[in-house]
Amino acid sequence: MTTATTIEPSTVNVQAAIDRFQAVIGSHIASYLEACIHCGQCSQACHFHEATQDPKYTPTLKLVPMTRVYRRHKAPLAGVKKLFGLVPPELTADDLIEWKELIFDSCTMCGRCTEVCPMGIDIASIVGLSRQAMTAAGVGPSDLWEAAENSRTRGSPLGLTPELLADRLEWLADDNEVEIPLDRDKAEVLITVSSIEMMKYPDSIVAMAKILNAAGVDWTISSKGYEATNFGVLSGKPDIAKIMVTRLTTAAEEVGAKTLVIPECGHAYGAMRWSGANILGRPLPFEVVHITEMVAKLIRDGKLKLKSTAESMTYHDPCQISRRGGATAAARDILGAFATDFREMTPTANHNWCCGGGGGVQAMGSAAELRHKVFQVKIDQVEATGAEHLVSSCANCRLTMDESRQALGWTREIKSLVEVLADQLED
């Protein structure tokens, strides 16, 4: 397996990678590494493998670097086996460089492989931990690391500083004649945003405000903690991951929020809802919900009045919201409240195919060509439904799809679920 790279082996800190691998191999990770039976079933669940039919993209191969460190240093009787040459060789700089594409460019950490794995191995979590080791060694995509550093120094991966946030919210509020509260002293609900939405799809922010205001929600956005995306998690930089979680937690605590809402962003939901307390090191003193979960509840509680539409729609499930997040039903509850011709994809819901850009892959220039090729899987899914409109609830999925459809000459528009819903609010 080879991949083009500009990384010089002499610049790679191999020992840092080995040390990090050893540090993250706890009992549950060791059980995964021991469990793999090399059946290869995961290959057919991976969009990278299915789009290319290249066996190097078999998900289980992503376990190899960590498994080698485990068997050489931490497995039962590893010390004795080492005396007799019965352990794998030590990792080298060339090994780490060779595995860069599998650990970063060709894994969205969507978790689809785990669904078919007879041993239930969570390859996505192993990839996430492997990225920490690769990053410690200095092997990884510089553009992904840059986005993470922007989060640390400027507040967001796209440079959405608190000052720029305030300016853009004021502009959106004035331009659309909608109230968007910023830095209220107290609020029941803290709304977070993604810089992809704010910088590329600002209409989704307006739509979210219209929905919340129509339902009478007591909410605010905070300039002290607003960016939901967590590139520390995606890039293998745990220190930045903790900074991002801490900012949101501090902001929520200061306004006394009982609920923190993640916007239309998949990995942001997983990072805060399922990993936030572990990253922070203490329980979160509020509930974390995705915007679709909140809106679905508002609909169930009768707080939103909607007009119906007969235009046919299909829904793309963001992996981190549905399959790995557990919020699969919320979007369907929303669509069911106004869309009379909703058409499921095949496969759908927790089994749906990834957009191809999750896990930070969308931000990696080196992954662009492969990412576009993989998107053909999604095109085929959508076209098979015959639906007029493709809707999703993740701005990263939307950006990935927009870029890939342009690259492949596909003309269908991808719509935001909150934007579609806002258009159906009764006057």
Can you characterise this structure?
- It is globular, with a radius of gyration of 22 Å.
- Strand 6, helix 20 (395-408) and strand 7 form a beta-alpha-beta unit.
- The strands form two sheets. A four-stranded parallel β-sheet has the order 2-1-3-4. Strands 5-6-7 form a three-stranded parallel β-sheet.
- Helix 19 (368-385) packs across helix 20 (395-408).
- The chain is mainly alpha-helical and 427 residues long.
- Helix content is 51%, strand content 6%.
- The protein has helices at residues 14-24, 27-35, 47-52, 64-74, 78-83, 93-105, 112-116, 123-137, 142-154, 162-176, 195-200, 203-214, 231-235, 238-255, 266-274, 276-280, 291-300, 328-336, 368-385, 395-408, 417-423, and strands at 189-191, 219-220, 259-262, 287-290, 313-316, 389-392, 414-416.
